[in-house]
């Protein structure tokens, strides 16, 4: 039986980085406002633990995005399929990623996607054209490397 998993990204600004990746992957930000409201009403979390984004309550130290076709757990708003969770950590990124995401869009769309991602705050590191490999290596707004193929 396969194991369910999610990708967790340590970062400085979970809300803004999750919005970048939601746009890059065409995923949806999770709506945890119902859970936050329930926990706030019970006194479990306070106003310092959440903020408001697009008219909904959102966690300050964590934000997740999910594939739009995958199911959602009703009470929490957590995605139950393909999901990326961004959590705040105190230390900055200091070395090259040991794991990265490849956005496989195809050669005909690559330049347009790279331009769109640059407009969202990503930067190009290098373009690779080798036998068997053709991609653009980029960095997201917090410096995490990824490739557009």
Structural write-up:
The protein has 149 residues and is of the alpha+beta class. The chain has 3 helices and 10 strands; from the N terminus they run E-H-E-H-E-E-E-E-E-H-E-E-E. The chain has helices at 14-25, 33-41, 107-119; strands at residues 7-11, 28-29, 50-53, 56-59, 62-66, 83-88, 101-103, 123-130, 133-139, 145-148. The chain has a 4-stranded mixed β-sheet, with helices on one face. A 4-stranded mixed β-sheet has the order 7-10-9-8, with helices on one face. A two-stranded antiparallel ribbon has the order 3-4. Strand 8 and strand 9 (133-139) form a beta hairpin. The longest helix is centred in the last third of the chain and has 13 residues, at 107-119. It starts with 6 loop residues before the first strand and ends with a strand.
List key phrases describing it.
single chain; 149 residues; four-stranded mixed beta sheet; 3 helices
Brief digest:
The protein is of the alpha+beta class. The protein has helices spanning 14-25, 33-41, 107-119; strands at residues 7-11, 28-29, 50-53, 56-59, 62-66, 83-88, 101-103, 123-130, 133-139, 145-148.
SSE layout and pairing:
Blueprint: E1 7-11, H1 14-25, E2 28-29, H2 33-41, E3 50-53, E4 56-59, E5 62-66, E6 83-88, E7 101-103, H3 107-119, E8 123-130, E9 133-139, E10 145-148
Parallel strand pairs: 1-6, 7-10
Antiparallel strand pairs: 2-5, 3-4, 5-6, 8-9, 9-10
């Amino acid at each position: 039986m396969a194991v369910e998993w999610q990708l967790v990204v340590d970062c400085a600004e979970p809300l803004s980085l999750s919005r970048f990746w939601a746009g890059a992957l065409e995923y949806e930000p999770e709506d945890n406002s119902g859970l936050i409201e329930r926990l706030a009403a019970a006194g479990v979390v306070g106003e310092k633990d959440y903020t408001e984004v697009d008219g909904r309550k959102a966690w300050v130290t964590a934000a997740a995005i999910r594939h739009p076709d995958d199911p959602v757990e009703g009470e929490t708003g957590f995605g139950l399929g393909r999901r990326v969770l961004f959590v705040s950590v105190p230390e900055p990124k200091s070395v090259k990623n040991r794991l990265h995401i490849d956005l496989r869009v195809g050669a005909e769309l690559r330049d347009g996607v790279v331009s769109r991602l640059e407009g969202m705050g990503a930067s190009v590191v290098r373009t690779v054209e080798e036998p068997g490999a053709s991609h653009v290596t980029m960095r997201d707004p917090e410096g995490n490397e990824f490739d557009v193929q």
